[in-house]
Amino acid sequence: MKHLFYVLLIFSCCFPMTxxxxxxxxxxxxxxxTSYSINIEEVFNSDGTVKVSKMKxxxxxxxxxxxxxxxxxxxxxxxxxxxxNKGDDIWFYSNRTNRVRKIAxxxxxxxxxGSDFTYDDMSISDNRKDYSYKLAGEEKYNDKESYKIExxxxxxxxxxxRFYIWIDKSNFLALGGEFYDENGMLWKKLTVRDIKKSGRxxxxxxxxxxxxxxxxxxxxxAVEIKFDTDLPDDMFTERGLKK
Amino acid sequence: xxxxxxxxxxxxxxSARSEDQNIRLGGYLESKMSYFSAEEEMTTANALFRLEGxxxxxxKGKIEAHLLYYYDMQPLNxxxxxxxxxxxxxxxxxxxxxxxxxxxxxxxxREKILLYKxxxxxxxxxxxxxxxxxxxxxxxxxxxxxLIKLYFGSCDLVFGKQQIAWGTGYAFNPTDIWNxxxxxxxxxxxxxxxxxxxxxFFGDNSSLNIIAAPGSDFDNMKYGFRIKSTAGRYEYSFSAxxxxxxxxxxxxxxxxxxxxxxxxxxxxNKIGFFGEFALSNPRYKGMEMSETDSLYAQFCSGFDYxxxxxxxxxxxxxxxxxxxxDYKDYDLLSFTRxxxxxxxxLAENYISAVVSYPFLNDYTFTLISLINSDDSxxxxxxxxxxAFHQNISIKLNSNIFAGSSTRTxxxxxxxxFSLCVxxxx
Lengths: 243, 425
Known about the structure:
CATH class of one domain in chain B: Mainly Beta
Largest sheet of chain B: 18 strands, antiparallel, barrel
CATH architecture of chain A: Clam
Strand content of chain B: over 45%
Largest sheet of chain A: 13 strands, antiparallel
Helix content of chain B: 10-25%
Oligomer: heterodimer
CATH architecture of one domain in chain B: Single Sheet
CATH topology of one domain in chain B: Outer membrane efflux proteins (OEP)
Structural class of chain A: mainly beta
Number of domains of chain A: 1
């Protein structure tokens, strides 16, 4: 039996991981029960202006359900975004109008609150459904051994024509990405920084999305993060949005 | 002066309590100046201050109060937004003459002379100028929201003045009897309704909403329900409502029963698709509910789409069963129904189109067009919004009307140019 274990181990080491196995392991990093964070979002526009927003984010079942609430600036204070089914369904709530509105699919590729992230970027959407994907290679990314995964849009409706994600070989966390428009031009660059272990879970302290076409960038920084706190289910419903 | 004092006291009270984390305060100040292009050029200026207070009592309930304070620096005579000889002028003149004829019949000679002199002063425009000082109210304090929310297991109860919004249409909402929709200002805020409102939730996306809005007596009361659910990527609802109000009684709008359906979802290529249908049965005096002579339908349906470059387009069609196909049939009743919100236009068929495009980080250009396809008149509302700061926006917009000034709905309105600055706190 012991011999069989070693044989299997050697056998598995000889065969490279498949792209699905890499993505499965990467997604498994999001296996927390709940998470709560306070985030600062800074949008650096090409004209030198900076816009700062503050938001609370609540997630459940490994980001299957996410609720974000803006607490600053005053103009959008109380505005909430609910993402269910890993971002397939997105609802928007404005406390000023007391109205819940479901965001249509055609709006998901639009900027979220004037940032360089789209609603699609902010949700953990299942890219394997909308894009074809393959392992494009193994290379160093920010001095870390990583897998480079290439995604190609299955339809013209997708936000990006093509994009690459680099995944750290040691912990399967995404280190960054490059996103191209439908004409094949580089559009955005994603950089993940300050990766650390918080309790049982790996987290990124800072995420930056740079729009190279607009020459703007958005940085989202987590200033407080907690895992596996008690979050009621009805928080992630239309009813919960109005509370 | 009394109003200003109350406002200051309220602010002080709220400020003193705002250290409590369960209390949230916010709001905005909006200052607007408008210029009306007419032979006698007119300008107006007003300011709106909105104070929003929320207090989370506990997980079981919440208190919410929004206070609105309007200050008209230069209020506008409500009847001076029309061109001379417009259909609105014609309707008002006709009604005025008919009323005058009736009054003259019961007056003696001396009273007739007195009335004639008074009317002469009024028509000389004297009051238009006095209006800038005392004739029209300059300031107004309104409690727009004042409500208590109670959360039970699968039910939420809301008592008090609250915002209620039904329907999925953009420029038109025939199923929404709670608000008077202005298709030329589709995003305008909705005024609070005093009501008792119960929401029963079943599943994640389905609910039953029961509402009763009291009037001066039990008879002048609106009540009904709305069931809402989802099917695939579609959201839909059914509603039934009995509508009778004190305002309606003043305007001689009869009691009505309305059945409604609305939906929103997507069709091919992720194009948004929405619509509303309302079937109404007004109960005129002497008629039974079962009679269908007065039955009328209103519906709207439209699509919207956002292109990858941010360009947003929307198109919507509105059928108004209460409207008229011929401008000659626009009368006082049509005007009253429009004012009371029973319909969103004088005619039968309307098309609305919206184009919106954000550019240069801080600017958004929007163009709303509204076409009355029966009398071939239209309203164009271009707007440029500039985000001067995260909490300050500047809007420059205009209402441009096209069509015969004497025979069409929109052609009879005065072109308007406005500058609006809003600061949030």
